[in-house]
Design a protein that fits this description.
The chain is α+β, with helices and mostly antiparallel strands and 558 residues long. It is built from 18 helices and 19 strands. The protein is 36% helix and 14% strand. The two termini are 32 Å apart.
């Protein structure tokens, strides 16, 4: 079978045009990966009985049947077998329109922060151009199928399995069924629209994709102006660095900086710096110290990579997070409540220290507990309280912490604490409700294997800090009774209702009665609806781990 010269030329022109716009025709991929040819996916284990296949009817179909190998997914083999091994990417008239669309989409994968080199669109074009025998066309057919499934999987659910990158990422995105993908390639009324719909259909993803393209244009235009570091720059000071500062802020689209002139760091420029600080999770005091200078001088290429990594994270997330949900961004150390697509409450939170990094997962709010007990975790009881008790058996006095053994309360002063260690600690420590309780006066429970929840805290001062990673892993929320008012508004509309229960000192359990999802996430770059683009410090080093995983194992988990 031969492809028409017109069809071959058209396909090659489409791919070369797409690759040329991002410098890939004769060079390496921009952005993340700089990887080599796409590795072959591992064969998938057979889990269902082999179906009955129809006999091939043409030389091409016979060649296609003979070319099937373990690196073709079982579901794809099933699809071909049930259609008598008839090809889907070409006919006797030549390459199909849908084949053109797939190859062009793969060539433009960089728009989604994917690496076109992983799918080899130009290699596919050359393979089609050279194909003459049934065997060569069969090889092209299966190669395009494999790359199409790989591309669709990457675009819809990410290039790596989150939990294999980091066990703290308890996310398992659904990967598309290869058989469904191939059915769409044959039957879709509008295959182009189907290909576009493989990407996450959330506004957050679309905004970040758009902003990534804009920042790439900035990089192509020369990047960001460096602001010389030196002594702290405070409002009212005159300094020759002000001109570079002004230019740097304008480059990041903080337009009020453009109205400033001269070398005095005056009110107008101070406001622009406060906006910059807010966008980068810094204390927005207008004082340019070591941390602000460092953020001003982060190379634009690093910001591009940060945005690309967060597009990968968005691919792990569901498009629909629920009609009523709590969303905690651990990197931002902020909580928001969203109802019917609108944010109705926000609050700063304290998250786990890097050594006790809070995991990423989703769950559902089960109950709210007012005046809770604190069952001291075993790790804290043995690592923090046991050494104190060995020195002073009365160390728990005044903390309202009781000691239990086999369900019975025992007096701490009657225990020979030096006889016990982390390996043989038979006690359970429990703190009674009250103002000194480590959980404060209320907690929000969504039972999970990590024993993570949201709670009040007696340590209120931490909420005023710009960086708030101080807990053992659980999430402390500012003004938790305001959060209770929002989440339990359907239970009681009267102001102060839950505070009144708190003041009784009686332990009380409240079930929400309606589905409220809880999403603990980790995003270090995003774009808001108002166009503000935020970047956050990678407090847990998860950006670095993800970048390394993407470079080393692009398709390892397919």
């Amino acid at each position: 079978m031969r492809e028409t010269n017109i069809g071959k030329r058209r396909l090659r022109q489409i791919v070369i045009a797409a690759l040329a716009t991002i410098g890939l025709v004769a060079g390496s991929a921009p952005g993340l990966a700089q990887s080599g040819p796409a590795p072959t996916p591992k064969p998938q284990a057979t889990s269902v009985p082999a179906p009955t296949f129809l006999e091939p009817q043409t030389p091409i179909a016979h060649a296609l049947q003979a070319a099937l190998s373990p690196d073709v997914s079982e579901r794809a083999i099933r699809f071909y077998g049930e259609r008598a091994f008839a090809p889907i990417w070409f006919t006797e008239k030549g390459i199909t329109e849908n084949a053109h669309l797939v190859v062009a989409a793969m060539a433009a994968a960089n728009d989604h922060a994917l690496n076109p080199d992983n799918y080899g669109p130009l290699r596919l074009v050359d393979q089609a151009a050279a194909a003459q025998s049934p065997e060569e066309w069969a090889a092209f057919e299966l190669e395009l199928t494999k790359q199409y499934v790989r591309y669709a999987t990457h675009l819809s659910s990410g290039r790596v399995q989150p939990n294999k990158v980091n066990k703290a990422l308890n996310l398992f995105p659904d990967r598309p069924d290869p058989e469904m993908l191939l059915e769409q390639a044959v039957d879709a009324v509008d295959f182009s629209t189907f290909l576009e719909a493989l990407a996450p259909r959330s506004d957050n993803y679309a905004r970040l994709k758009r902003r990534l393209a804009q920042y790439r244009e900035k990089a192509a235009a020369g990047g960001f102006t460096a602001v010389p570091e030196g002594e702290v720059l405070k409002p009212g000071m005159s300094d020759p660095r002000v001109a570079a500062l002004r230019q740097r802020l304008v480059e990041e689209d903080i337009q009020i900086a453009a109205d400033h002139s001269g070398e005095t760091y005056d009110d107008g420029l101070v406001e622009a710096v406060k906006i910059f600080q807010n966008l980068h999770g810094l204390a927005d005091d207008g004082v340019i110290g070591k941390e602000t200078f460092a953020r001003l001088n982060i190379p634009l290429q690093e910001k591009l990579i940060q945005m690309e990594l967060n597009m990968e994270r968005r691919r792990w997330m569901r498009d629909d997070l629920g009609s009523f949900y709590v969303f905690v961004n651990l990197a931002d150390q902020e909580l928001k409540v969203v109802k019917e697509g609108k944010t109705i409450h926000t609050a700063p939170v304290v998250v786990g220290k890097p050594y006790h990094a809070t995991p990423v997962f989703s769950d559902q709010l089960d109950y709210v507990e007012i005046n809770p007990f604190w069952n001291v975790p075993y790790s804290i009881a043995t690592a923090e309280y046991l050494p104190k008790l060995k020195k002073n058996a009365g160390a728990l006095s005044g903390k309202n912490i009781r000691v239990f053994q086999d369900g019975n309360e025992v007096a701490a002063t009657q225990i020979a604490w030096n006889n016990y260690s982390r390996g043989n600690f038979p006690f359970r420590l429990r703190q009674d409700p009250g103002n000194s309780n480590a959980l404060g006066r209320i907690k929000f429970m969504f039972p999970n294997k990590f024993n993570i929840y949201i709670h009040d805290t007696p340590s209120k001062s931490l909420f005023s800090r710009a960086e708030r990673a101080f807990s053992h892993g659980c999430i402390r929320v500012s003004d938790p009774f305001a959060l209770a008012d929002v989440l339990l508004s359907h239970k009681s509309a009267s102001p102060g209702h839950w505070e009144n229960i708190r003041d009784t000192d009686k332990r009380t359990i409240v079930k929400p009665g309606i589905p409220i999802e809880v999403h603990l996430t980790y995003l270090t770059a995003w774009m808001n609806k108002d166009g503000a683009t935020h970047f956050r410090k990678d407090i847990y080093g998860r950006d670095e781990k993800l970048l390394d995983a993407l470079r080393k194992a692009m398709t390892e988990n397919l």
